[in-house]
Amino acid sequence: MTDHVVSVGVDLLAQAVADQAAPVSQVDWRPPLAGTEDDLATVALDPLRGAANADALERVLGVQAVLVDVLPAHEAVGLERGEFLHAGPPIAWDRASGPLRGALMGGAVLEGLVDTPEEAAELFEGGLHVRLEPCHHRRSVGPMAGVVTPSMWMFVLEDPATGARTHCTLNEGLGKVLRYGAYSPEVLTRLRWMGEVLGPLLQQVVRATVAQEAPVDVTAILGQMLQMGDEAHNRNRAGTLMLLRDLAPAMVSSGTDPAQVAEALRFIGGNDHFFLNLAMPACKLALDAGRDVPGSTMVVAMSRNGTDFGIQVSGTGDEWFTGPAQVADGLYLGDYGPDDANPDIGDSAITETAGLGGFAMATAPAIVRFVGGSVPDALATTRRMQEIALGENPRWSIPILEFAGVPTGIDVTRVCRTGILPQINTGMAGRRAGVGQVGAGLVNPPEEIFPKALTRLAALTRERAAATTPS
């Protein structure tokens, strides 16, 4: 009789052998994604791939993100009147989802382009005096709808070694907020306060920390908050409080009206998601360093606009590979349900792309109370993400997994070979413009975008091979 059985594939077979008292090792093997076999073989033989992926990953892991300024978007990224940034790959008004439309409508009112959201809809339908562009195209990221207008204030992060910069707006909080597509008077009132009071105050404070050669080290805070139960996407409580610790003394001594300082402290301290808008550009800063490495199969961006889900890959430049955004599976607020939820939206999956968020759920088991699932699910998710990552980030470690670094560097070939899709935890916006947040949950990218990226990588591999083959 066989001393030991190795079972590959269907669990039922392993269980049948185990029921006969034979020792069984179950191997979690899956066939490659359909239709990818030839492209996988081509890319696997690319002589550049191994060194290219090692180089791209090393670049990502070498970035240090520090907070160096807070600026209006027209100064930070050159945004002009009538220009709007949005989350996700490129999209026009006619295909824009409800929450993206709602955020754009509110943004147009905020900028004084129109008096009412209804007039804003007509403005965008005409399209003559407005221009939409992805945040990623301006070295920026935006949560949920990700709408940025010229007057909105943005965090500016920098890598001291290279001078490279990335940007993100200030976080509004949860619920009825512009990034979820809400545009009611209280939403616009809050945004005006952020533009008139919070932004200028933070600019003064951040510049003071830089002048004292003690800028906020966002990369270091991310490492600390993972030790404290945050995963830096939907749980940022520890990160927000550490940021407040670093900024509060300078805020108090800034000379600003004490009532305004107190209001700002209350707003930041009462908004557990405030640090998310620093975590996101920190991740983008790192991943941008890994771009444009010929032969690299590493994903450098995952992003959604509420209609399309897109990825960009190091070895394929700025090209987007897109498919339909999916509706998250999770928990709903109040009486909302699946019919109320819009498909996945936001640039915030940049956190997962860097190894945080859904990839780091093992370090934040409490997140399951917000997005659904169980604690064992959270641990299993991080272990599963290790199978599609090129390596680990030693700066960002997970205590419960013996301080292993978070899985970093999503590999297109590993996704196609294993069929394991990246795990994202996310908020859910209402399907209709103006509703706001309706829940939070777990979601995966559409499967077909990875074979699309693989096909392009294979084509580039063949082109390089043809160029070096003697005629």
How would you briefly describe this protein structure?
The chain is α+β, with helices and mostly antiparallel strands.
Structure description:
The chain is of the alpha+beta class. It folds into 3 domains: 1-30, no CATH class; 37-60 and 291-468, v583 fold, CATH 3.90.1700; 63-280, Enterococcus faecalis V583 fold (Alpha-Beta Complex). The protein has helices spanning 11-18, 37-44, 49-61, 73-76, 98-110, 117-126, 185-211, 218-227, 237-252, 258-269, 276-289, 350-353, 368-371, 375-386, 412-418, 449-468, and strands spanning 5-8, 24-27, 66-72, 83-86, 131-134, 153-158, 165-169, 216-217, 299-305, 308-313, 321-324, 329-332, 345-346, 389-398, 404-410, 424-429, 437-443. A hairpin with a 6-residue loop joins strand 6 (153-158) and strand 7 (165-169). Helix 3 (49-61) runs antiparallel to helix 11 (276-289). The longest helix is centred in the middle third of the chain and has 27 residues, at 185-211. The chain is globular and about 75 Å long. The model has no long low-confidence stretch (mean pLDDT 93).
Instruction: Note the main sheet.
Output: 4 strands, antiparallel
> Which strands sit side by side, in order, in the main sheet?
7-6-3-8
- Proportion in β-strands: 15-25%
According to CATH, the homologous superfamily of the largest domain is: Enterococcus faecalis V583 domain
Q: Count every helix, treating DSSP H or I runs of 4 or more residues as helices.
A: 16
Total individual domains: 3
**Shape summary:** globular
